[in-house]
Amino acid sequence: MSKQELEKVAGNGLINRRHLLGLGLAGVGVAASSTLLGADAGMNLEIPSWSKQPGPGASGYGSRSKFANDMQRLSGNPNPLYPGGGASRSPLHQLQGSITPNSLHFERHHAGIPDIDPSQHKLVIHGLVRQPLVFSYEDLLRYPMISKIYFLECSGNSGTLFGPNPADGTAQSIHGLVSGAEWTGIPLSTLLDEAGVEPEAQWINAVGADAASMGRSIPLNRAMDDVMIALFQNGEPVRPEQGYPMRLFVPGCEGNISVKWLTQIKLSTEPGHFRDETSKYTDTRLDRKSLQFTYPMGTKSVITSPSGKMKLERQGVYQVSGIAWSGRGSIRRVEVSADGGRSWADAMIQSHQSEKALARFRIPWEWSGGNAILQSRATDSQGNVQPTRTSLVTEKGNISTYHFHGIQSWAVNTAGDIANVYA
Question: Looking at 242, 270, 291, which one is the last position of a domain?
Answer without folding.
Answer: 291
